[in-house]
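Researcher: I'm preparing a figure for a lab meeting and need a structural model of a single chain. I don't have an experimental structure, so a prediction will have to do for now. The sequence is pasted below. Please return the structure as tokens so I can convert it later.
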Amino acid sequence: MPLAPGPTDLDLIDRKIVAELMRDATLPIARIADRVGLSQTPCWKRIQKLDATGVLTGRVALADPLRLGFGITVFVGIEAPDHSPQWRNDFAAAIEKIPEVMETYRMAGDIDYLLRVSVGSMEAFDQFYRQLTDMVPIKNVTSTFAMERIKYTTAYPIDTTHR
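Model: Understood. Here is the structure written out token by token.
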């Protein structure tokens, strides 16, 4: 199976295009093309290729969680009762069904999985906790509540200055 393209497979113009789209995916092609030093058609073709090769995985609108009623961010550490394929599949299926789970990572170290969960209240978090633990057996759950979001970005710090 071929490896996914790495950062060395993207030339400087492609990296600049990706950086512009990560900052603002609503930019018109003409503005992106101008910012990266291309005309519109070659810029559009490069964006299509970045889409087709999976470098670009989607374009979304970012929303303020507070204005949507999701003012509590919780990082939830999960310790699995076992590491069987069946448990992993059941766990993955369970978290896919819970919309409050924003991100999930399988970890190395003391915890097996780390979840970023967004809820509107402690009661909502308790409902999330009960729902998850009813859906799949868990050895241990550790929850850490964020008090303040200091920095948040969805844009990766790609190099847009060096060839």
